Give the backbone structure.
Amino acid sequence: MNAHDWLLNLPMIDFDSACKVIEVSFSQGTRKDFFRNPTLQPFEKGDLIAVEGVSGFDLGEVSLTGEIVRLQMKKRNAKEDNPEMKKVLRRATDRDIEIWKQNKAREPEAVIRSRAIAKQLKLDMKISQVEMQADGRKATFFYIADGRVDFRELIKVYAAEFKVKVEMRQIGARQEAGKVGGIGSCGRELCCSTWLTDFKSVNTAAARYQNLSINQTKLSGQCGRLKCCLNYELDTYLDALQHFPDNCDVIQVAKGNAFLIKKDIFKNLMWYTLPDSNKQYPLTIERVQKIKTLNRQGITPDELEPVDVSGKQKEAEPETVELVGQISLRTLEKAEKKKKQQQQQQRQQRPQQRQGGQPQQGGGQQGQQRRQQGGQQQRGQQQGGQQQRGQQGGQGHKGQQQKGQQGGQQQGQGNRNPQRPNNPNRNQGNRQQGQGNQQRPNNPNTGTGKQES
């Protein structure tokens, strides 16, 4: 409901021919009116001023001044030289603003009480809003009704109840939504409460021309009527539909009669269905015209020859990619696929390696058993040699003891890795050590040691 004053910053050339009418808004822009400014005091947008009212004064906010007001008056068919136009009294004082706020605080209670009175009188109407004059001498009751209402008795009750001069004004559901305000399904403020002033009738034919589903919950606005925005693009659709052929709702083919379902003005396609299936077939305008001319000649074509609209063109990926800010999800997906493929190949190679290494493990197990048997024999022989060496105490025997310990350590190290492949040289060395340890008791020195003990 706000108009931008694009002539505000332009300098005035002739003050005598300047527009002396200003536009004043009331109740936060829900109602606007024109007032003549006979004083020489200039007013700017947003100033609170006191204007003439019904047997008193009213308080409003300046919305437009200057030459732009003449354009608004021309739009609303208002004449600048109208003698009945009310005048601007003065700039609002602190006393005027205080009285105005007190009377505005009475409006919510007046709405509740007025609805209760209308219900007691059994009148088929709804009180939407009550607007009090700034001085509290007049009240305007806005109501909604489907038909005419005899409210002569209602006015008398209101005047006695509120002690004001009563004015009844009927409005529509769209105007009520504009006064209440709100957010539409598009996410923006309602058009009727921001800029839309002329409410045109909207019917379901506008939705059919635009191929919209006739769903009352989706097509209706907050006022309960069809949305005003259905008329915004209607002219564009009507111009585009002029290129489509008429009388093509039914065409004949070999399979039967094809019925028109919808028209796509963006792709210039017409969708048909056959009686034997629920599938929809898109046809070009030229194909429909050709089939229609053949039907007039008494010829029925074999097929509809629909257009393939399911195929999507693949986007060509650039070969060279910039290094800065060109990382996309597709590159990440390719890297993940490569990792998964490598992991699968590694998993498939592992069981093959295990199958090829089984005989080596078997030979290793046999060598491990032989090493364990030879180690047990060597431990028993080492214990006997240690007893003899303790009795004799010879240095040569100590050297043999150290050699035996080193051989045992080497054997222990060889036994620590049982999974190594069977080495024939190692087995021969172990056998020779075992034979050497078995021949030690035949040493004459060791025998004398036993006799002396």
